Amino acid sequence: MDRGTCIGFVAGFGCIAAAIAMHGKLSDFLDVPGAIVAFGGSTSALFVMFPARKVLSVFGVLKNCFLVRLPEPPEEIRRLGALATLARREGRLALEDKLPGIDDPFLTRGLEMVIDGTPAEELEETLQIELSCIQERHATGKKMFDFLGASLPAFGMVGTLIGLIQMLGSLDDPSRIGAGMAVAMVTTFYGALGANLVCLPLAGKLEARSKEETLIRELMIRGLAGLAAGESPRVLESRLKAFLSPEARRMEAVAAE
Amino acid sequence: MDRGTCIGFVAGFGCIAAAIAMHGKLSDFLDVPGAIVAFGGSTSALFVMFPARKVLSVFGVLKNCFLVRLPEPPEEIRRLGALATLARREGRLALEDKLPGIDDPFLTRGLEMVIDGTPAEELEETLQIELSCIQERHATGKKMFDFLGASLPAFGMVGTLIGLIQMLGSLDDPSRIGAGMAVAMVTTFYGALGANLVCLPLAGKLEARSKEETLIRELMIRGLAGLAAGESPRVLESRLKAFLSPEARRMEAVAAE
Amino acid sequence: MDRGTCIGFVAGFGCIAAAIAMHGKLSDFLDVPGAIVAFGGSTSALFVMFPARKVLSVFGVLKNCFLVRLPEPPEEIRRLGALATLARREGRLALEDKLPGIDDPFLTRGLEMVIDGTPAEELEETLQIELSCIQERHATGKKMFDFLGASLPAFGMVGTLIGLIQMLGSLDDPSRIGAGMAVAMVTTFYGALGANLVCLPLAGKLEARSKEETLIRELMIRGLAGLAAGESPRVLESRLKAFLSPEARRMEAVAAE
Amino acid sequence: MDRGTCIGFVAGFGCIAAAIAMHGKLSDFLDVPGAIVAFGGSTSALFVMFPARKVLSVFGVLKNCFLVRLPEPPEEIRRLGALATLARREGRLALEDKLPGIDDPFLTRGLEMVIDGTPAEELEETLQIELSCIQERHATGKKMFDFLGASLPAFGMVGTLIGLIQMLGSLDDPSRIGAGMAVAMVTTFYGALGANLVCLPLAGKLEARSKEETLIRELMIRGLAGLAAGESPRVLESRLKAFLSPEARRMEAVAAE
Amino acid sequence: MDRGTCIGFVAGFGCIAAAIAMHGKLSDFLDVPGAIVAFGGSTSALFVMFPARKVLSVFGVLKNCFLVRLPEPPEEIRRLGALATLARREGRLALEDKLPGIDDPFLTRGLEMVIDGTPAEELEETLQIELSCIQERHATGKKMFDFLGASLPAFGMVGTLIGLIQMLGSLDDPSRIGAGMAVAMVTTFYGALGANLVCLPLAGKLEARSKEETLIRELMIRGLAGLAAGESPRVLESRLKAFLSPEARRMEAVAAE
User: Fold this and answer.
1) I need a labelling partner for A17 at 20 to 30 A (CA). Which of B77, B180, D55, E144 fits?
2) Does residue A25 have a pLDDT over 90?
3) Given CA atoms B134, B136, B139, B143 in this order, what sign does their dihedral have?
4) For residue range B64-109, what is the model confidence (pLDDT) as tens digits?
5) Phi, psi of E157 (to 5 degrees)
6) CA nearest B180 in C: which residue?
7) What's phi and psi for D44, nearest 5 deg?
8) Which of A23, A195, A197 is facing E33, going by the closest CB pair?
9) What is the distance between the alpha carbons of residues C169 and D29, in angstroms, rounded to a whole number?
């Protein structure tokens, strides 16, 4: 799993919980109606804005994003180079033995096409369509988290308004004013935390992840097309190096010295 | 009717109502002067900003958007392909029998032109003008909901200010302070809910719907022009496939295997 | 006068007044110092930002915008077509008899140039300069209302701060706290209402009006240039139809059937 | 000095002072620690963001902007035309007698170069560099006032928070609560006024002034290059008229009739 | 170290501390749970949004930015000119004696390549990659400070909500209400100060610094490539002058007179 995100969530909720525990108890911050308004309300607004099918697919996007580790470009270049060497020496069909060791479904699908003798152009076109689907899903995911990041604080405020209106409407028992306001404010707390610790940073991460995945997938497509066209391993590797970031290219150069 | 939007509204208002009902009664949240200020005020501002004619046409846009189901592109390609096959085999006039079964007025109008022998260029031009009208209406609709999404919370605040000023101006009876503030806040509640659960998500949906409708209408125009020019069904279908999204193209490919 | 804007203002202020009258009296919402801060302050800021000459010209812009009715494009095409027919049949000088019936000063000026035998290029250049002046005035007007829309709520808050500070500084008489706060809040009310019911919608309308006027003026320039060049009425009308919006073009087509 | 800005400031601060004086005294609105936080804090942030050298140069920019009157384009065209006529009739050296009567240092510098016989291209290049420096200073000035416009209200709020925290921390003497809150709020008042009456409008004016100065300087450069190249006065004047705004060109045309 | 930033921070925190000390003591503004929520929470959100590796590298960026002094362009042009003269007279190897006197690692690396006889194109390419890495780090640093500038006030508000909810939930002891609210507000104070005095201005400075460093590095790359290609010192210096800002070019011109 993506470690940074994990650390961030644990640390973030840990900080909040620690600060709460220093002066009170966590159960003061649980409020069922508030959670219904903040989370239920903004999820409902999400369904008004986006087609139901897309809202539900966002979980798949998140799972893919955080559970599937992307290979680093230099590592992937080496792997594709090794496969090209193998294909050169022992023929395309020898690639079949390597298939079980590959856990990336995108690469697996491409290699199967190479083994089946699919021409390079057709392979490239098919995988580009696959990549467009991935990008589209990422972009929709980012848009949803951005929308939630704006709508959660708004529904948090709606919940607080509900609580305040109910409390103010029945001021018979002054001793309950404080508790009523406390409960009312919990919804704003939910909205602010959900937006700032979860939704907005996740929207940023999805965007970064999408760029990263696009790069590595385009590198794979280029490499698989080279395999399909029977390019020599050396030519292939040198072409794939154009995909490296300046940082990585510098590290490669240092490693090569 | 558009199901997602429906589900979203029902769920959203349901969440709010449930949260209210847990600690009080819904009637606390009804306030006639507040509704006049929030909804009346922002609708009036809409009339200041947009020509009256356009404000009134927004209901038509919404009705079209939510009650008229758009065909899915692959489905439409098959339908146009079938019509092309029919026209090839039995001549254009045979299309007339199919007219009663078509409930989309845009397609009906196009088919009538094909049957009348309108040349392909003229047909294309006429339908493009029709499409521009539809897009213009959608764009205006989106702009209005965006404006309402910004203006409803503002008028909600205006209503709350009115309530607070009136309450503060007559503090004779301290027992009525709470109730006065509660009523004042209901207007902010109206504005926040109207903007975040209704107007802003609808603006987003109208935009998405506009893109979707533009795509399917352009597909229809292209297909009808092909019919008018007497293209062969196979050529026609393969050209129309360029309109498919990557997702749909992938599904078509899977289905074809 | 522009009816939509008129209706919007009457309805908007009517809603506010009605809501106020339901629970109190309108005079609670009059406060001279508050009005000085909100309206005086933001107008002063306008004078800091824009040259005095331009601030004063905004009234002319508004008057022109709301009191001068623009002809509809199809109507104008017919009028120019009729003038061209007249000029064809009886010569340019015959246009002179039509001048008194034309109440649009832009068109009057153009026709006078046609009658005087001004060459088409010179006429076009002169009227384009006139049009640029109009557009510049509209753009400045829009910028000012946008600025006021942002600055009115800010000065409303400044006024409320003044009221609160004065009230808090002299808490000797607790019975006056409520009244003091009420008066303080009236300024925020002024700022919010002025921005959301008047300035921001007017800025939007000025922009739309500017587009509309540009279109009709360019149509007029094109038509007058045609008159000056002695184009045939039919050629002239068909060229002017390129200025029609899709909506209008569709209606013309329907009318022609 | 620039009259509009002057009127705006006098009127704006006048309005505020008048509104204050109606119900209290101005001294309630003086608070040294508040001023330190609001003005000191945001100026410090300015020094963190911009190099010290640039922050200090902003005073020069303001002085130039408000104390140096820019000539109007038509007036400047006439002056340059007169100089060209003089140079034609009596030779370049005759321009020397006119130098003392010119109070614009940019024009003086250019004329000296013309008298010295500097070739037109060199003169143009040197003055363009001068103009770029002026524009760069204006742009930095605008950016600073925009930053202050955002940072003043924020530091105003910081000051109010300081006041509130100190007041709430020592509630021993309830009679001082009101006074404490009043003082705390003065800082927010400083921030809101400084941003909305001074900084944001000044940023707007600097931008407009920069456009205006660029125009007149480019007109001067063009005119001086013409002088240096020995262009005839008539050719020179007609070329410079291309710099006039549509408004001014219309007025010239009216004057010429 | 960068003096302006230093002065800004000292002055800014000095203003705040002075204002606080005038009416109370600094220790009222220390609150451990508040600091945990504001700083811990927004740093955690940073880790959710950016890869851990990049978050940690931001300290290096800051250190480089504020401890490493960049040479001024005219000064650097003179230094490169002197090196070129030396290389012309005594050969490239003579540059080796100058290496210990150069404390800029970028320049040192480039000179070593020149001494080793690296061809100009290869040298340029290698240093461009190095420069891209620097720019990428700066851009990420700016993005992080912008994100913190938005997220610190949000977490400040979350902390204040926690404090208020806990205080309102236990109103048994009315004498502690004030102190509770004071503590709650300290978190908002942290967020506002951190964002407006530290993060947002630093984001602005990083951007300006990045532009400045890009300019001087490109000047160095151009100069080193000239050295490697054996350009004459005069040609080299005159080409490098194209990198000077208008301000600097004017000063050079004045100095040359």
Assistant:
1) E144
2) no
3) negative
4) 777 778 888 888 999 999 999 999 898 888 888 888 888 888 899 8
5) -65, -40
6) C23
7) -60, -45
8) A23
9) 10
Residue pair A184/A29 in contact by the 8 Å Cβ criterion: no
Of the pLDDT bands very low, low, confident and very high (cuts 50, 70, 90), residue A231 is: confident
Q: How far is B7 from chain A (nearest CA, A)?
A: 7
Rounded to an integer, what distance in angstroms lies between the CA atom of residue C203 and that of residue C150? 12
Task: Tell me which of C10, C69, C197 to substitute to probe the interface with B (most B C-beta atoms closer than 10 Å).
Answer: C197
Distance from CA of B234 to the nearest CA of C (A): 33
Contact yes or no, E with C (3+ CB pairs under 8 Å)? no
* B41 chain-C contacts, CB cut-off 8 A: 12, 15-16, 196-197
- Contact criterion met (CB < 8 Å) for B23 and A33: yes
> Residue C162 is nearest to which of D189, D208, D249, comparing CB atoms?
D189
Q: Do D4 and C32 touch (CB under 8 A)?
A: no
For residue E9, the surrounding DSSP H or E stretch is helix E3-23
End-to-end CA distance of chain C: 34
Whether residue E3 is predicted with pLDDT greater than 90 in this model: the reply is: no
pLDDT band at residue E57 under the 50/70/90 scheme: confident
DSSP state string for B172-219 = T-GGGHHHHHHHHHHHHHHHHHIIIIIIHHHHHHHHHHHHHHHHHHHH
Q: With contact defined as beta carbons under 8 Å apart, do B55 and B140 qualify?
A: no
Rounded (10°) angle between helices C3-23 and B41-49: 160
Q: Which tens digits make up the pLDDT trace of B102-161? A: 888 889 989 999 999 889 999 998 899 889 888 888 999 999 999 999 999 999 999 999
Structural tokens at position A76: 């992937």
User: Is the predicted pLDDT of residue C1 greater than 70, yes or no?
Assistant: no
In eight-state DSSP terms, residue E196 is I
Minimum distance, in Å, between the CA of residue C110 and any CA atom of chain D: 15
Residue of B nearest to A165 (CA): B182
pLDDT at residue C257 in the model: 60
The DSSP code sequence of A122-160 is: HHHHHHHHHHHHHHHHHHHHHHHHHHHHHHHHHHHHHHH
pLDDT band per the 50, 70, 90 thresholds, residue C256: low
DSSP string, A15-61: HHHHHHHHHS-GGGG--HHHHIIIIIHHHHHHHHHS-HHHHHHHHHH
Among residues E206, E76, E71, which one has the least CA distance to residue E145? E206
E244 neighbors E252 (Cβ within 8 angstroms): yes
Distance of CA E164 to the CA centre of its chain: 37
DSSP 8-state assignment for residue C71: P
Measured distance CA(D83)–CA(C19) in Å, rounded: 69
Q: What average pLDDT is seen over chain C?
A: 88
Instruction: Give dist(CA D45, CA E149) in Å, integer.
Output: 13
- Would you say residue A204 has pLDDT above 60? yes
ipTM surpassing 0.90: no
d(CA D199, CA E98): 50
Shortest alpha-carbon distance between residue E60 and chain A (Å): 15
pLDDT band at B257 (very low <50, low <70, confident <90, very high): low
Beta-carbon contacts of A106 under 8 Å, excluding residues fewer than 6 positions away, are A127, A130, A217, A220
Minimal Cα–Cα distance from C151 to chain D, Å? 7
Question: In a mutagenesis test of the E interface, which of A6, A176, A177, A196 is the best target, namely the one with the most E β-carbons within 10 Å?
Answer: A196
pLDDT tens by residue, D120-136: 998 998 899 889 888 88
Backbone angles phi, psi at A119, to 5 degrees: -65, 150
Is the pLDDT reported for residue A173 higher than 80? no
Percentage of residues of chain D with pLDDT beyond 70? 97
Average pLDDT over residues E86-90: 90
Tell which of B26, B152, B196 to mutate to test the A interface (max A CBs under 10 Å). B196
